Amino acid sequence: MQNSTSKGASALPASIDATASLLASARYLADRSLATVLFLALKMGRPLFLEGEAGVGKTEIAKVLSETLGRRLIRLQCYEGLDVAAAVYEWNYAAQMIAIRLAEAEGAVDRERLTHDVFSEQFLIKRALLQALEPDTAGAPVLLIDELDRADEAFEAFLLEVLADFQVTIPEMGTVKAQHPPIVIITSNRTREIHDALKRRCLYHWVGYPTAERELAIVRAKVPGVAARLSQEVVHFVQALRREDLFKAPGVAETLDWASALSELDAVALDPATVSDTLGVLLKYQDDIARIDGSKAKELLDQVRAELRAAE
Ligand SMILES: Nc1ncnc2c1ncn2[C@@H]1O[C@H](COP(=O)(O)OP(=O)(O)OP(=O)(O)O)[C@@H](O)[C@H]1O
Ligand SMILES: [Mg+2]
């Protein structure tokens, strides 16, 4: 279905390998299972529902897809209280009022005509979901519905309707239906469960932390200036941290930040003092920092060095 919209530079990938290469061309290194589910979502024209910890690359997938496929990225950031006016459309009341006043000032007001005029496209403010249903010469856009778990359940129910038929009804104007459904990526940090009914419409993937090997490749791709030894130590240290009992384990985003920060400090290898001074780049809760700082950090560092020596 969605394939028919693709042409030229924005053609959808034809295989799982091609999907992985497409992402890699924008320096996004996906594992096989993610490349597979993404390939299927694109091929079958189904929304992709991504859940996972913070900072593991959920949002980035939509950005990379839009960039590599040459499609427009339309982002809907969810929050508590998000409603149809903010997500789909709202009427520009101020402009409507001015139009009405002007018509009145000119005299002879044809009420029916005026109503028709002020409820026309000119006075419609289109928000993300409506924009995503409109045709685009570059092909159907990428619609990112980010952090859906933050929105209320009422909004989720509404979204279900939109995703079922890729259409919305504006009472004063009629129904807007997408000629070509957008590529939909939905993310959730799982602060609450998303309903089965919505999940059923989507393909699902849990985005986990990467293996040490892949995380090292991500660091090398994204922070190229870092010394080889340092990047290895950074990745192994972060992987060891994730095995600790922390309130909030560091994501890939933190690994990249830490590698950049250490590189800024001209570090070439980790030592206890540097780790202690820069822990705030990795851990964002004082309890976690207090738990790791000092002897625990040193212990982890020794462990990392032993691991790396054994692998040499
Ligand atoms: N597999 C990957 N390949 C390349 N970069 C990655 C990968 N995973 C994560 N990143 C990088 O990590 C950072 C965080 O990614 P992103 O913002 O997409 O995370 P997220 O899962 O949406 O997090 P949050 O839940 O906090 O919004 C980005 O800079 C992204 O480029
Ligand atoms: Mg995100």
Task: Sum up the structure in keywords.
alpha/beta; single chain; elongated; binds adenosine-5'-triphosphate; 312 residues; binds magnesium ion
Explain what the structure shows.
This protein is of the alpha/beta class. Helices cover 51% and strands 13% of the residues. The chain contains 15 helices and 9 strands. A 5-stranded parallel beta sheet has the order 2-5-8-1-9. A hairpin with a 3-residue loop joins strand 6 and strand 7. Helix 10 packs across helix 12 and helix 12 crosses helix 13. The longest helix is centred in the C-terminal third of the chain and has 17 residues. The N terminus is likely disordered.
What's the number of helices?
Answer: 15
- How many strand units? 9
Q: What's the overall average pLDDT, rounded?
A: 93
Order of helices and strands: HHEHEHEHHEHEHEEEHEHHHHHH
Helix content: 40-55%
Helix/strand-derived category reads alpha/beta
Strand-residue proportion = 5-15%
The distinct ligands, each listed once, are: adenosine-5'-triphosphate, magnesium ion
Distance between the termini: 50 Å
